[in-house]
Amino acid sequence: MVDKYDISRNPSDLPGSLGISNVRAGASRQYFLSFDDARAQQESAHRQLTAYVWKQPTSEEKHNENEVEDVFSTEIDAEVYERYAIENFLPGGWSKGAGLRDALKDVTDSHCTEFYEKAVNMLEKRTNYELALIYINKCLLLKPYHIVLYEIRSEIYLNLCDFQSSILSLQKGVSYQHAINKKEQLAREKYQQQHPEEVTMHQQVPAVSKEEKMKNDKIAFLRYMSGISLFDQKLYIDALSIIATGADIFSTFPFQVYR
């Protein structure tokens, strides 16, 4: 029987039902119909390509890989275990950090002392009140519960004729002083409850101390000066508000007169 699929035939003329494509011209029917042989040849070619691309490591390369594994190994030697005991990493073995706190406190105190001396020096020489105010504000950032700093800042504001800021600074110092006194009183009461036999009459603290009374007098004076200043500027409503507030709080003679 004559083979119809000879070399003169175009591969595109092959029967479509066979599902064969990309057959070179002149291929025999027995060759391109053998799908198993074609698949085997493709797998063989794939193995050859893989073997060519991924070469097997030589003995020297294996030695280098072992060295790299030794460098980046996560295994811990026994000496490390002995040197750093596991108890040191537990919360019970942590240091309290007292040295760090002491060092930080020393740095804070030194800076605050430096700023305080500069502010007081400028205030005594009556030069550059604005810069003195900057220094005293830096001190308050470092020590916000230091009551004396609020009094100095109030005096600086007074020299700048800023009565309202001076009053607010004094009032803030008084409020902090009340908070400190309340905390001390609670601690004292707790101690007295635990040691009732040590309670004596002279330990009682007066309701209003002498220092607090002096601060209240300063606030009254500043309110009076602020009211007079507003009155001289013909700001009668603002002056009346300041004087009325001062008269309600401090029943002193100047307030009653101007009211």
Strand content is: under 5%
Amino-to-carboxy terminus distance: 137 Å
The CATH architecture of the domain at 99-167 can be named as Alpha Horseshoe
The largest β sheet comes out as:
none
Order of helices and strands: HHHHHHHHHHH
Account of the 3D structure:
The structure is a single chain. By secondary structure, the protein is an all-alpha fold. It has a domain at 99-167: Alpha Horseshoe (Serine Threonine Protein Phosphatase 5, Tetratricopeptide repeat). It is 66% helix and 0% strand. It is built from eleven helices and no strands. The relative contact order is 0.04. InterPro entries: TPR-like_helical_dom_sf (IPR011990).
Give a nutshell description of this structure.
The protein has helices spanning 29-32, 35-53, 59-71, 78-83, 98-125, 129-142, 147-159, 163-194, 210-232, 236-249, 253-258. The protein is mainly α.
What are the key terms here?
elongated, Serine Threonine Protein Phosphatase 5, Tetratricopeptide repeat, mainly alpha, TPR-like_helical_dom_sf, 0% strand, 259 residues
List the helices and strands and how they pair.
Blueprint: H1 29-32, H2 35-53, H3 59-71, H4 78-83, H5 98-125, H6 129-142, H7 147-159, H8 163-194, H9 210-232, H10 236-249, H11 253-258
Helix pairs in contact: 5-6, 6-7, 7-8, 8-9, 9-10
